[in-house]
Amino acid sequence: xxxxxxxxxxxxxxxxxxxxxxxxxxxxxxxxxxxxxxxxxxxxxxxxxxxxxxxxxxxxxxxxxxxxxxxxxxxxxxxxxxxxxxxxxxxxxxxxxxxxxxxxxxxxxxxxxxxxxxxxxxxxxxxxxxxxxxxxxxxxxxxxxxxxxxxxxxxxxxxxxxxxxxxxxxxxxxxxxxxxxxxxxxxxxxxxxxxxxxxxxxxxxxxxxxxxxxxxxxxxxxxxxxxxxxxxxxxxxxxxxxxxxxxxxxxxxxxxxxxxxxxxxxxxxxxxxxxxxxxxxxxxxxxxxxxxxxxxxxxx
Length: 300
Hints:
single chain, Fructose-1,6-Bisphosphatase, Chain A, domain 1, disordered N terminus, metal-binding, Inositol_monophosphatase_CS
């Protein structure tokens, strides 16, 4: 079971304590900061203390313990009391993926509007809830519930209009061939580079972009909450080969890119043009990212 340590307090966007834990295949540094580690301590300890039978899969390494984080009543505040089809799951049947600080590179550059925390609850390899929070933006977390088709909390669902209806958002730090693919294969579409998978999913949910395209390697904690949020608004989210993303912590690296769109019709249009140019990135089944930690919950 996973545990943690010390300081809590709000996140701070200073650049101290940055180290590089790995490099992507296209040579982009993957930094980790004190803020990543502090957030990870809180998330992992909080889940492990309150829901000890969950399986947790975090981007960051196993944290040291913290004193009790969650105590007393955990009643949901409005608007989260409005959840429909509130399915009950056994803890031991659920996986929670955790990206404690998405867009770390942008965080080190003080581009904090891109930063999110990402949590995703998975049952049978499929997201049942995605939680995206922008810690430097004054609004509550955004929760996507695919089964009930609800988007609750911070970002309000809007259909893309005007220029947004022809905008495809993609990574500013892991661009790969994304912008070139938009220009070559998606006529009439414009690229919008942005930081962080969570932020880009919120752009689609909030109507600032029609689609989210990713064409380099990623991990399940990058995609899972985005998948849940986009499905919650009635959109579609798949790999670029058309297959659903399977959220398996024993095979966590996604090697076929992914596409999320604001509606099934939009997704079909984009995928139909991109599928002719498949993305298959180097790697192997079971490839494990640097410092990622899988923690299996207690049996009782």
